[in-house]
Amino acid sequence: MKNDHRKDNFLAKYFSNRLKAHYTDFSSWIQIIVFVIAYALIACIQIHTDNSGLSGIIAQPLIIMSIYLVIQIIKLGYIVSVAVNLTYAIFVTYHVVVHHEPQAIPGIILPISTIIIVSIISFYGRRLNDQITQVRMQREEIQNLYETVAEAKNELVVRNQQLLEYNQILEENESRMQHLSNFDLLTELPNRATILGRLDLLISIMADKKMSFSFIFIDIDNFGSINEDVGHRIGDMLLQAFSLRLGMLIHPEDMIGRLGSDEYALVIQHQMSEQELFSYIESIRTSLQEVFPIEGNEYSLTASFGVSIFPSDGVDAEELLKCANVAMLKAKENGKNCVQFFRRDMRLEIEQKIIYQKRLMNSIKNNELFLVYQPQFTPDKKRLRGLEALVRWNSAKFGVVSPVQFIPIAEEAGYIIPMGEWILRTACKKAVEIEEKYHNGIIISVNISSVQLMAPNFLAMVSSVLQETHCEGRLLEFEVTESVMISSLDIAVSLLKEIKTMGIRVALDDFGTGYSSFRYIQLLPIDTLKIDKSFIDSIEYQDTQSLLVAAIITLVHQLNLEVVAEGVDSEKKVIFLTKASCDYLQGHLWGMPAGDEDTDMRLAAIFSPRDEET
Questions:
Q1: Bond preceding residue 102 cis, omega within 30 of 0
Q2: Which of 252, 323, 368, 463 is most buried, most CB within 10 Å of its CB?
């Protein structure tokens, strides 16, 4: 911008000077022409004047005109003046010599004197003009310098203003960075580092005074599922509302902070007995259960609380946090939405669980997993419907571990997804092997957890395994539990429909143990209902339970679904279920779960006679 401004000034001056120069040139030539004409006329008059006195008077204008011309037009005027006066002197000399007019000799002196005078004037005039030009140039340089200095000053003012603004921005950013390093961005609560810093400070103070304080680990129950159902935007708004309410419920001396996604920490600094502490935390827990209104909808949240106390449960910040976390996990195991104080035995239990988890993570790589198969027969045992594939873990360290123990660990750690893929692939290979050998369409049933089904790539994984093992979908049945529907019915229905398009049958497992209702059965795209063992066990000694099981079978048949009864372990149950028209039976009476070799022997015993007849 500054360079453009200077360029514009230069161009303006240039064109202005050029215009003045043109005007000056035109005016000079007019003056020269007038001078030459006037000089010639006056010179003629002087030559033809006999009176010497009058001639001297007439000669004076010639001198004045010559001097004027030199002064007005320094260089060109001098040349013209000298040329004219010299011409006049030559002309007069000619008359003196040729015409023998000696009286005209004074006329020669006049132009010569004029030439000398104008030469002197021209010399000093040029010097003076040069000096004036130099002074003018210096003045212009000084003016330009003044302008440059003024522009530099203005630029410095602008730069200074910019520096002030940049400095202010840097200070604001530094303050913001300082805030971000100590506070959570979403909830504006103190973050993990700040909480641990406060714990370190309290420990240094309380240790000297032999006093105690409490640390509470708070985790929102099932927030991952809630976030998936309502979306992350509403989920963030729920976290903000939860944080705000939590801050309003605590004592002014206490400190609340956010440790992670759905994890919070409460530092209770004032002294309380254990009973008072429990009542205080319990009041917070119950208040948090009240609905949160978000964008016209109401949402309910619950939380699990783990409590550790300084110095009995830990003498440093990390240990207190770890103990409170262990207590919170125990609260989760106890049904969630409760308060749990840390106990020493919990640590051993959690540590044992962690060891199991680490070993379980390597179970596939170490070839420690294997499948067993339990048969499903028609009540008359004349036809084998299929086999349910059940996973077992033979740990090198722990021996054979019950699925009741390791499946929840696998689900919690997310290991159920690679484990489930291994189970499906192994079951598919078995199904293909049996079909190629017997061609009887034997179904292999595979249990699918809600964690697996809701995994983003579950359908792609199933399709890939089917192609890899060359297994037809008709040889498989996926058994799902009611927990799949409770988390998100619409998504579950959509996924199960996709599964059925692959030719895979779908069974609802463990019916009667949870939230089962015929509404779900009507909505879900299932082919088979499996009545849980707990229902079947009671039909021997409870008439009402027997009537209920019979009614369930009748209603399910009206929905065109097949029924499989689990846990059949006595002839009396077989007789009852046969009368109730149950389609298939599964239980220890007709077959314990067996490994590959025993299953092959069992199948050979079932199909060999038929093969011989053929």
A1: no
A2: 323
Token representation of residue 449: 């957890």
Segment 186-191 mean pLDDT = 90
The predicted structure's pLDDT at residue 517 = 59
List C-alpha distances in Å: 565 to 212, 443, 477, 555, 574: 57, 16, 16, 15, 10
Q: What is the pTM of this model?
A: 0.57
For CA atoms 328, 329, 332, 334, the dihedral sign is: negative
Six-digit token string for 378: 């028609």
263-268: strand order across its sheet = 255-258, 263-268, 213-220, 303-310, 339-341
> For residue 219, is pLDDT > 60?
yes
Phi, psi of 89 (to 5 degrees): -65, -40
Q: Which residues of 248-281 are buried (b: 16+ CB within 10 A; e: fewer)?
A: ebbeeebbbbbbeebbbbbbbbeebeeeebeebb
Which residues are CB-neighbours of 288 under 8 A, at least 6 positions away? 242, 245, 246, 249, 301, 302, 303
**DSSP-assigned states of every residue in 331-390:** HHHTTSSSEEE--HHHHHHHHHHHHHHHHHHTTTTTT-EEEEEEEEE-TTSS-EEEEEEE
- Residue-wise pLDDT for 228-246, tens only, equals 677 888 889 999 999 999 9
Of 504, 515, 513, 546, which is closest to residue 531 (Cα–Cα)?
A: 513
Distance between start and end Cα atoms, the chain? 102
Residue 547 in 3-state DSSP? helix
